């Protein structure tokens, strides 16, 4: 590993490192912060007790999306009769799927190691203990290294929440465990209808597992608008996935072959048995390792309090990613990492979350940025809304992806785009244009007059902008035709 050997030799000589910036955690918040700090002329050390890339790369974002892609390909090959394509005896070699997925992870982890090395960052595996606001001890299993730093960026991430009634182990899986399964379960119970539960539940369903989802609230994906979540619920129903709402799991009993979960629905006790149970009820910040001893101000749930430059209550210590307030998103962590590094270098960078996109790689995909209709209304803004259906887009029809919509929310008086919501194929990519629109304060007119290539899914943002302005081309206006 780059710099590890050199670091150990130096430690053997005087056992003391002096560094400008110590980054604790090598996930998408940490390694990006380290690179940006190095670019700005700082000497940087990054330490992580696990692999480069953190949970996102090794047991979260990347491996899950690889499995989602494989499941989508399998479904597409198995169900293309409408296009005139028939494939017989389509099979899944799940061992090869896992090998392919692991190859992607390995390649990307190697890429991060190369970036750290290329930016002259000392990268060391080991567990960091902060002694005070300028000193730390790193234990790498062989010896302890004493580190003195001017600044520190905490990017320690989060871990899956474990239910006392369903502790991880055996056939009760965390999301990381589920991604490492060596077989496609015949049946799977998913506890939690948030983005992790839905993504993995749909994936295994497409591979052929019988999936049941237990969601504690009234609907799945509560962080998204109801009409967006309904698009996913509709697809789940088509695939035969059973969803129990307002369902609370209270216990589980395992055997060598299966696991039985007892749960409550509206006070009624029920049971269900499956090969495995996936517990996906959220994540908890990794801030339980003595940060309170330093006097860092913390918030409810163990989150670290930061200012708009990601600075904690100790002026030389910064925090980013899952351990600070806001959604636990890799791209949010990376963004905060850049801001923290730039603040350390004396720049005036500050966080601005208006254009942070939210994405679920469900089927159909969901993506949102900025304000929703409800959020804008709650702020008392008079809004104009434009909506365009996938069913009216030629490219969507050619992709057999006619379910979904693109919706824009704008200030009626100024035309400035406040937010966008997309439910449908490739929503994860389409939302980038609207993120830029929100970030730069673009108007509906800006998007409407931008020439979009035909035939593409991207045309729908233009069509939605035209609808909001009152002159839709490829759908009838509720106002009727008008001349301007």
Automatic annotation (TrEMBL):
Its EC number is 1.8.1.4. It is an enzyme of class 1 (oxidoreductase). Binds 1 FAD per subunit. Keywords: Disulfide bond, FAD, Flavoprotein, NAD, Nucleotide-binding, Oxidoreductase, Redox-active center. InterPro entries: Class-I_Pyr_Nuc-Dis_Oxidored, FAD/NAD-bd_sf, FAD/NAD-binding_dom, FAD/NAD-linked_Rdtase_dimer_sf, Lipoamide_DH, Pyr_nuc-diS_OxRdtase, Pyr_nucl-diS_OxRdtase_dimer, Pyr_OxRdtase_I_AS. Gene3D superfamilies: 3.30.390.30, FAD/NAD(P)-binding domain. Disulfide bonds join 56-61. Residues 20-337 form the FAD/NAD(P)-binding domain. One of its GO terms (molecular function) is flavin adenine dinucleotide binding. Residues 356-465 form the Pyridine nucleotide-disulphide oxidoreductase dimerisation domain. It catalyses: N(6)-[(R)-dihydrolipoyl]-L-lysyl-[protein] + NAD(+) = N(6)-[(R)-lipoyl]-L-lysyl-[protein] + NADH + H(+). FAD binds at residues 65, 156-158, 322. The active site is at 454 (proton acceptor). GO terms for biological process: 2-oxoglutarate metabolic process. Belongs to the class-I pyridine nucleotide-disulfide oxidoreductase family. The active site is a redox-active disulfide bond. NCBIfam families: lipoamide_DH. This is Dihydrolipoyl dehydrogenase. The gene is lpdA.
